[in-house]
Amino acid sequence: MLRIDIPSTADAKINNSIFDDYGLPTSENGTDTEVNGDLIMLFEDEEEAVAYLDELEDYAGDLDNNSPAAPIVNALITAINNDEFVQAYLE
């Protein structure tokens, strides 16, 4: 099981409700929450994380830059892209 921490930023308050609030696609294995409140995305493996990343990138391409979902989608994409296991898989 691959767990990717998605921290909140000043521009994007990340929590479990973002998927319903903004109509975002979810990962097949769902999410969890850290003690500090960070959202954790759960994936079976790196391949599943990359497939979800592709889906998010397609979704982001359809968003207007001024959309309230844009900083949240960007935070998700950045966190998944920066994960060391995803990076190794992509190399």
Spell out the blueprint of helices and strands.
Blueprint: E1 2-6, H1 18-22, E2 31-33, E3 39-43, H2 46-61, H3 70-82, H4 84-90
Proportion of strand residues: 5-15%
Q: What order do the SSEs take from the amino end to the carboxyl end, as H and E?
A: EHEEHHH
Described by the principal axes of the CA atoms, the overall outline is globular
Mean pLDDT: 91
Structural descriptors:
three-stranded antiparallel sheet; globular; 91 residues; alpha+beta
Question: What's the short story on this structure?
Answer:
The chain has helices at 18-22, 46-61, 70-82, 84-90, and strands spanning 2-6, 31-33, 39-43. The protein has 91 residues and is α+β, with helices and mostly antiparallel strands.
Write structural notes for this entry.
The chain is of the alpha+beta class and 91 residues long. It has one domain. It is built from four helices and three strands. A three-stranded antiparallel β-sheet has the order 1-3-2. A hairpin with a 5-residue loop joins β2 and β3. α2 runs antiparallel to α3 and α2 crosses α4. The longest helix has 16 residues. The radius of gyration is 12 Å and the shape is globular.
